[in-house]
Amino acid sequence: MPALNVTFTEEEMVTLRDQAAREDVSMKVLAHDAVMAEVHRRKVTAAAARAARVSAGLNRRLATK
After folding, report:
1. 23 in helix, strand or coil?
2. What is the Cα–Cα distance from 55 to 50, expressed in whole angstroms?
3. What is the pLDDT of residues 11-30, one digit of tens each?
4. What pLDDT is recorded for position 65?
5. Burial letters for 23-40: b for 16+ Cβ neighbours within 10 Å, e otherwise?
6. Which of 12, 33, 56, 65 has its CB 3.0 to 4.6 Å from that of 8, i.e. a possible disulfide?
7. CA-wise closest residue to 16 among 3, 32, 27
8. What are the CA-CA distances from residue 28 to residues 4, 5, 6, 12, 40 (Å)?
């Protein structure tokens, strides 16, 4: 399975370790889930921006009626 090495500062590692303990998951699971959630958030944001651009003209026309 592919893997990715990510470098953290000591302070970031403490934060990651503490959060993983609070959620009762491994640091690997916490980091994986956080990265995947951020990728999803970026995809949704980009799709919303595209939809807003595409519908901008229609929205202007509807607003003037």
Report:
1. helix
2. 9
3. 999 999 999 999 999 999 99
4. 65
5. eeeeeeebbeeeeeeeee
6. 12
7. 27
8. 11, 11, 11, 14, 18
Can you tell me which residue has the tokens 């026309």? Answer: 61
Structure tokens at 33: 């889930």
Q: Which two tokens stand for residue 17?
A: 């370790």
The letter for the amino acid at 53 is R
Tokens for 4? Answer: 């990715």
**Which H/E stretch holds residue 44?**
helix 27-63
The letter for the amino acid at 1 is M
Tell which residue, 41, 18, 43, 16, has the closest CA to residue 31: 16
Structure tokens at 29: 């699971």
Residue with tokens 């970026």: 42
